[in-house]
Amino acid sequence: MDIEQFREYCLSLKGVHEKMPFTDVSDRYSRDILCFYIGDRWFCFVNVEVFDFCCLKCAPDDSLELQARYMGIRPGWHMNKKHWISVYFDNDVPDDKIRELVRDSYRIVLRSLSAKERNKIQSDI
């Protein structure tokens, strides 16, 4: 999977929009971070230049199990290690599993939105 395929997949989920929110920071790596949002909350981010990993929301129990199973899944970079994971591309995590984890992250964040926000997202599409 390359960055365009990954981006296209994330944007295919209902109500998702993207933004690069860190364009003014001094760290080059952080400036190139693209975040995917549902409502006003992000569920995924990735560096568009390096494309080395993505960071995703994850249920705490699932996180530990995934980290034990895959070398390419580690605690979330710069995020709450209990609720976020980093999934490394070109490692032992198959593309289908990455897409599944992206969907799971999307669903976790979608469920965290208010009923009004969820209904608006679902009715806009």
Question: Could you explain the architecture of this structure?
Answer:
This protein has a six-stranded antiparallel sheet with strand order 1-2-3-4-6-5. 41% of the residues lie in helices and 24% in strands. It has 125 residues and is an alpha+beta fold. The chain is globular, with a radius of gyration of 14 Å. A hairpin with an 8-residue loop joins β5 and β6. The chain is built from five helices and six strands. It has one domain: Aspartate Aminotransferase, domain 1 (Alpha-Beta Complex), CATH 3.90.1150. The longest helix is centred in the C-terminal third of the chain and has 18 residues.
Q: What is the count of structural domains? A: 1
Output the CATH topology.
Aspartate Aminotransferase, domain 1
- Principal-axis shape equals globular
- In order across it, which strands form the biggest sheet? 1-2-3-4-6-5
Category from helices, strands and their pairing: alpha+beta
Specify the CATH class: Alpha Beta
